[in-house]
Specification:
Shape: globular
Largest sheet: 7 strands, mixed
Distance between the termini: 69 Å
CATH class of the largest domain: Alpha Beta
Bound molecules: nicotinamide-adenine-dinucleotide
CATH topology of the largest domain: Aldehyde Dehydrogenase, Chain A, domain 1
Number of helices: 16
Structural class: alpha/beta
Number of domains: 2
Helix content: 25-40%
Strand order of the largest sheet: 14-15-16-13-12-17-18
Number of strands: 20
């Protein structure tokens, strides 16, 4: 085993979980046994909540301008340790080193946003009648929780940690049991940056800990990022227990390609979107709808996809089960009459035979009712459907239950605007394959890609991580009593 067993992080210390139950952590890159991750008990969670609750009065009373100083230092530490963090991310997740570098750079951008929060939460004050003032203040909630998925071991924790904590909350984070290592390093850097003990706590585990988080009476809010199936469970359970909850789910993102689209740029974007992070991004293009004759663009997509090589510029998928699931989707589509133009099944990387790789896969003549057209595959696979009109293409996009992202490739501004209006997704791209809003804009989908109000990052996150205190004060007694006061 390459690293020591993973431990929980409670009150600023790495501590063993109270159970012996643990899972292996295996690198998808080459099958190396990296570590073990404990399946913590509700007792471990209770200890973490106790530590967070104890830290809350002092942390929340500190002026926000002081709190964000921690994040200025954390940002510097992320920059200083970028290479090491990226290497760890690649090791546990399987994405390429370049993709991991981009992930840590995104953590830096997210932290940069958190340092700007004092400029955004100034509240409001108005003299509503002579001598009478109304004022609003953003007040932290207390102990909050963040449950995260495997596909961004560092970035998704940084969607929630900097904003929630800078806004005065104390947090319990539950990393994915598949990639538990990066989060521990982030906690170490935050401690080095001066974050007081107990403000951030890590409790490892799987289903049982997620359930315990949803049930714990002293956790005020739960954010979740993961599959739609689990997002629904978490949203229902947390809100059933009267908690605030924002649960981001899975996706099936459509690219609508018109015949006038710039050939080279479109092909490069389609392939980058479907194969980046081995297709394991909730913003990955997974379905493409070609309107009219787009054979010339599909030919280019094939050429571009053939340049994507597992183990070189394409990382691994998370585990064997995932590889098998992705390959099953491709085989089923082929059996149903779709045409596999580029086939990523049975990819093996020399010297990394125990890694779990799927090569880039382009499937043409997919019908809208096939599983590859409808379901999240979460692998480097693009399913191409063909329609005669833009409205038919939009109807296919609209009929999908998810709603994270959709993009259109065209040179026609009118068509682009039409797609922005008609697509049923929270994040729309025009000639952009992965339309992730950059800070200060917020990230969040629609439909079955998100449950709850608001978005998880950017300005929208302020509403999720705080509650408004409204005060009305009267300073001149001679103002007298009127109908309002
Ligand atoms: P997942 O839903 O399997 O797991 C997410 C978290 O939930 C993990 O921490 C896991 O331990 C826990 N969990 C798993 N099963 C559970 C259950 N039955 N009950 C309670 N908790 C459970 O997701 P994943 O496989 O880790 O991540 C991939 C998924 O996440 C994809 O569907 C992807 O689209 C989605 N995702 C969405 C976004 C977004 O912004 N919408 C971002 C990243 C990933």
């Amino acid at each position: 085993m390459k690293y020591a067993p993973v431990q929980n992080y409670i009150n600023g210390q790495f501590v063993n979980a109270s159970t012996d139950k643990a899972l292996d952590v295996i690198s998808p890159v080459d099958g190396t046994h990296l570590s073990t991750v404990p399946l913590s008990s509700s007792e471990d969670l209770a200890n973490a909540v106790k530590a967070a609750k104890a830290a809350f009065p002092k942390w929340s009373k500190m002026p926000i301008k002081e709190r964000v100083q921690v994040f200025f230092r954390y940002k510097y530490l992320l920059e200083k340790n970028l290479k090491e963090l990226a290497a760890l991310c690649t090791e546990e997740n399987g994405k390429t080193y370049g993709e991991s570098v981009a992930e840590i750079e995104k953590c830096i951008e997210l932290t940069e946003f958190a340092t700007s929060l004092p400029q955004l939460v100034t509240g409001e004050v108005l003299e509503v009648s002579k001598g009478v003032e109304c004022r609003t203040e953003h007040v932290p909630l207390g102990v909050v929780a963040s449950i995260v998925p495997f596909n961004f071991p560092a970035m998704v924790p940084n969607w929630t940690i900097p904003n929630a904590i800078a806004l005065g909350n104390c947090m319990i984070i539950k990393p994915s049991e598949k990639v538990p290592l990066s989060c521990g390093r982030l906690a170490e850097l935050l401690k080095e940056a001066g974050l007081p003990d107990g403000v951030l706590n890590i409790v490892h585990g799987d289903v049982d800990i997620v359930n315990a988080i949803c049930d714990h009476p002293e956790i005020e809010a739960v954010s979740f990022v993961g599959s739609t199936k689990v997002a629904k469970i978490v949203y229902q359970r947390a809100t059933h227990n009267y908690k605030r909850c924002l649960a981001l789910g899975g996706a099936k993102n459509h690219l609508l390609v018109l015949p006038d689209a710039k050939e080279d740029m479109t092909a490069a974007n389609v392939v980058a979107s479907m194969s980046g992070c081995a297709g394991q991004r909730c913003m990955a293009a997974s379905a493409m709808v070609g309107v009219g004759n787009i054979d010339h663009i599909i030919n280019k997509i094939v050429t571009e996809a053939q340049k994507v090589v597992p183990g070189k510029n394409l990382g691994a998928v998370i585990n064997k089960a995932s590889k098998e699931r992705i390959e099953r989707y491709i085989t089923e589509a082929e059996q149903q009459g779709a045409k596999v133009l580029v086939d990523g099944r049975k990819a093996i990387v020399d010297g990394k035979e125990n890694g779990t790789y799927v090569g880039p896969t382009v499937i043409d003549y997919v019908k809208p009712d096939m599983a590859v057209a409808k379901e999240e595959i979460f692998g480097p696979v693009i399913s191409i459907m063909r329609t005669n009109t833009l409205d038919e293409a939009i109807a296919i996009e609209n009929s999908n239950p998810y709603g994270n992202a959709a993009s259109v490739f065209t040179q026609n501004g009118g068509y682009a605007r039409y797609v922005i209006e008609k697509a049923s997704a929270g994040m729309i791209g025009v000639n952009v394959g992965v339309p992730v809003p950059r800070e200060p804009f917020s990230f969040g989908g629609w439909n079955e890609s998100k449950f709850g109000v608001g978005d998880i990052t950017g300005k929208s996150s302020i509403e999720f991580w705080t509650k408004l205190k409204k005060s009305t004060t009267k300073w001149n007694p001679e103002a007298g009593i009127n109908w309002m006061s």
